[in-house]
Amino acid sequence: MTASEQSFDIPEHCRGIGEGKFVFVYTFGCQMNEHDSEVVVLLLGKMGYTKTEDSTAADVIVINTCCVRETAENKIFGLLGRLRKLKNKNPNLIIAVGGCMVQQEGMGKRVKDRFHHVDIVYGTHNLSRLPELITEVSSSRKRVLEVWPNTPEQFDEIPERKVSGVHAWVCIMHGCNNYCTYCIVPYVRGRERSRLPLEINDEVRNLVSQGIKEITLLGQNVNSYGKDLEKNIDFADLIMMLEEIKGLERIRFMTSHPKDISDKLIDSMSRSKKVCEHIHLPVQAGSNAVLKAMNRGYTREKYIALAEKIKSVIPGVSLTTDIIVGFPGETEEDFKETLEMVKRINFDSAFMFIYNKRSGTPAAKMKNQVSNDIKSRRIQELIQVQNDITIKSNESEVGKIFEVLVEGKSKTRKDRLSGHTRTNKIVVFYGSDELIGMPVSVEITSYSLTHLEGKALYN
Ligand code: SAH
Ligand code: SF4
Ligand code: F3S
Which CATH architecture has domain 401-456? Predict the structure, then answer.
């Protein structure tokens, strides 16, 4: 089969192989991987496998890997080591390792050579081949490595999925064309490809018919949605199309690249009833020299103007971000500019990372790498500054009333319910299980760094 013929329909000879058997999936990395793991469960479901939450009961273990930073890779290597025991106990267990980490040049072979208990290594472009690879391994017991280097020409059809709960991830595009100089994603996820709007529409309608009320549209840079399609459609058009779907209450999206966010999108968001008042807008750094070296395509001034425009057009909007400290060449002055930027924009929250060399990216070859000591000092300082801002932002919500879409029991406080505000803050409150899946008005009574607490208002 060639890459362009790839599709998510499983071949006849794979059906029934997993009857009465179980699959366990480990997921590392971003929401894109969460989504891919859902597809894995779906594909294996077509083979007869049932998902289990107990790895020791599994007949197949799939590990969906990430390589955005070394920490993710180290965790995965640790897990692979530990799985050896499970395989010794159950030699029929099939272990498959897929996703971004093994898509890196030479990494698939490294994993296969080092971990003899791993049966299948498959790349990000080979996801739909997993049922065939599992079928092959179950009959031959021969280990396989299949990592296609290039993006398939045709976008995979995402099969109809059975879902539960109120929220679902919907992938609207694959890959990335931006080549930020620190980032491995374009190398392991391939070029940008948008899904056809009607396919997305059908998928969302199907999800809503199963009770889903909130969707998050996923892409590495959703603002460039549609650029590769023949049809003249952009991201703002797409969300306005989805807005029409009856029963869908909330639309979220991530991630927005600041260089591509359009006035049309900001305007559509302000007019839309369903698009939530939250934008995750990774700034990465506050200094123009660093932004340029990162190849981000915007300046500090442009970012500030954009954030101000968003705040003025969409009242109550929440802005969150990603920041990297210790990028090669980052001086004390540059770092101060990042701190200043963070204070100026007043982000509701931020993911903060120490720059990590990724082999094959331009930044890894830059001569002026920052020492580990300086990087750790800077991240501590940044975290302190941002945490103070986050806590103040959460404190300012006390006394306000928010619509919370109830997702289920709180994971940390099991006697309470939990859900998100439209601005994407977690709210925990007392209420009966009947409220699960419903939008509930909650008055905020207290706060912490990670979430808000409140009481439900019944009318
Ligand atoms: N496409 C998204 C997110 C990609 S990865 C975007 O452009 O925003 C998520 C975050 O990981 C990035 O925003 C960046 O802050 C961080 N990241 C990526 N590569 C990194 C590296 N080499 N070292 C440290 N952080 C990195
Ligand atoms: Fe990586 Fe930049 Fe693409 Fe985001 S936009 S995935 S940070 S290259
Ligand atoms: Fe990681 Fe791949 Fe996502 S590298 S962050 S899982 S796109």
Answer: Beta Barrel (2.40)
